[in-house]
Amino acid sequence: MDEAVQPELQPNKQSSFLRRVGIYAAVLIVVFLLGFVPMWFKARTSAGSLEVAEQHLNLALIQNTIASAVIDARRGDYEPARLAASQFFTSLGAEVDKGDASSFTVAQREGMKPLFARRDEIITLLARSDPAAADKLADLYVAFRKLIPAQKV
User: What is the crossing angle of helices 78-96 and 119-127, to 10°?
Assistant: First the structure.
């Protein structure tokens, strides 16, 4: 009789064991999600903040490049000023070409187009070591600053 009872008890033990394993697995998944979900939200928020910070940094680097060119030209260091002005136009062009992914608004991108019209004249003046280049660069810097208001970070 023990042998007959034994097979009947076996499935109950097995289903009880599987039920226990299922409950442990469900509890483990819930505990995992309780830790994962808040961290996922924090990561998304941080990624958004990082993107904004990178845009502000990119604008600051572009502005710093043109300011450096103005200072070098005022000091009579025309070759470093020419290189900085060239870098300014290259960086500005790359940022404007990003379209909607740009750090600039549509209105700002449209306002940048007249700045590019001055590129060849300014680069040529700097290549000739013409002192008038300093004033042209300063005017370019002022025009750029008018298009890009001070950023609050």
Answer: 160
Q: What is the pLDDT of residues 15-48, one digit of tens each?
A: 888 888 899 899 999 888 888 888 888 888 888 8
- Provide DSSP, 116-127: HHTHHHHHHHHH
Q: What is the span of the domain harbouring residue 99?
A: 2-147
d(C-alpha 117, C-alpha 138), whole Å: 15
Q: What are the E-state strand segments in 14-94?
A: none
In a domain, 153, yes or no: no
Domain total for the chain?
1
The per-residue pLDDT for range 128-150, each reduced to its tens digit, is: 999 999 999 999 999 999 988 76
Coil/strand/helix, residue 92: helix
